[in-house]
Design goal:
By secondary structure, this protein is mainly alpha-helical. It is built from twelve helices and two strands. The chain has a two-stranded antiparallel sheet. The protein is globular. The N and C termini lie far apart (76 Å).
């Protein structure tokens, strides 16, 4: 045996060790069982920054390629994924989560008012004296209606569960500003989860609308993730667009509206008329589900 062979054999035996992740015996740079690197160390700040940029920013072009196709070619990413061309693009779930997180962060930072109770006591500075009695009567009627609504709500929740009725009554007893603050906190705490929970429902609606198409449920779910990721992205851009840029906002809104039917036709096929009919039914079902999910999530957070 030559000295070179002995040296190689010695280095191979020296490299053999147990994987720190799974404990399997390894003899190389990576564990043959779980794939983790065998030579590990705490990364320096430079190495950490390089890894972050390479993985999250460059991502071998996946991020920018996926973003371009998602924005300008409705339904393209779904078709590519269904037809097996997947490695070159970001995963659908990752796209959805990324843009949904960005959207809710922007909504929170922008100070958008989640609920508006109005200002029932606010009146114009100049009011004719002859209108004073009508103003007081109108205000009393508004207060009576609000009180009636609250009483009915408390009675209804109490009929479901006495403890729930007590919590509802305590909530209505809070000052208006505290009610608004509580609803806002509940909205941002639970709404992202409620909306994500609707993705399987969105896919189920598509499954029903395209019965007989031969598409599997997983394909509908994939399409739901891509289309909703685009919606979050467009709404985020609209939030960042200055209020004075009315034309840009209009263009973004129109693209948001027409994007989904274009994507549906590219992925599922069918005539324009049939696609438009399915799109309208889908939007009605989705918005009703969305309103119910947000209301239930917010109520659960407030009264739970």
């Amino acid at each position: 045996m030559t000295s070179e062979t002995l040296s190689h054999s010695h280095s191979y035996q020296h490299a053999s060790t147990a994987c720190l992740n799974c404990g399997a015996a390894t003899a190389g740079n990576y564990c043959q069982h779980c794939g983790q690197a065998t030579h590990l160390h705490v990364p320096s700040a430079r190495e950490f920054l390089h890894e972050f940029i390479a993985h999250y920013v460059a991502l071998e072009g996946k991020l920018w390629k996926s973003l371009g196709k998602l924005i300008f070619k409705p339904g393209f990413l779904s078709r590519e994924y269904i037809e097996g061309r997947r490695v070159r693009y970001l995963e659908p779930l990752r796209l959805y989560l990324t843009f949904s997180i960005i959207f809710f962060a922007l909504v929170k930072l922008s100070g958008v008012q989640v609920i508006d109770f109005g200002e029932p006591h606010a009146r114009p500075a100049i009011v004719a004296a002859s209108d004073a009695d009508d103003t007081r009567a109108g205000q009393e009627l508004l207060d009576a209606e609000l009180s009636s609504f609250e009483k009915k709500t408390v009675a209804w929740t109490a009929s479901l569960n006495p403890a729930l009725g007590e919590k509802t009554a305590r909530f209505f007893a809070l000052p208006r500003q505290q009610q608004k603050d509580a609803i806002t906190r509940a909205f941002f705490a639970y709404s992202p989860y409620a909306i994500f929970a609707l993705m399987p429902v969105f896919a189920l609606y598509l499954k029903g609308l395209y019965l007989g198409s031969g598409r599997r449920y997983g394909e509908h779910f994939l399409f739901a993730l891509h289309s909703n990721a685009f919606a979050f992205l467009m709404m985020s851009v609209m939030i960042l667009t200055p209020a004075s840029w009315d034309f840009v906002r209009l263009v973004l809104l129109l693209w948001l509206v027409f994007y989904l039917p274009i994507a549906m036709r590219r992925v599922y096929g069918g005539s324009r008329l049939a696609t438009a009919a399915r799109w309208m039914v889908l939007m009605v079902l989705h918005f009703v589900s969305l309103a119910l999910a947000l209301a239930i999530a917010t109520a659960q957070a407030l009264l739970g």
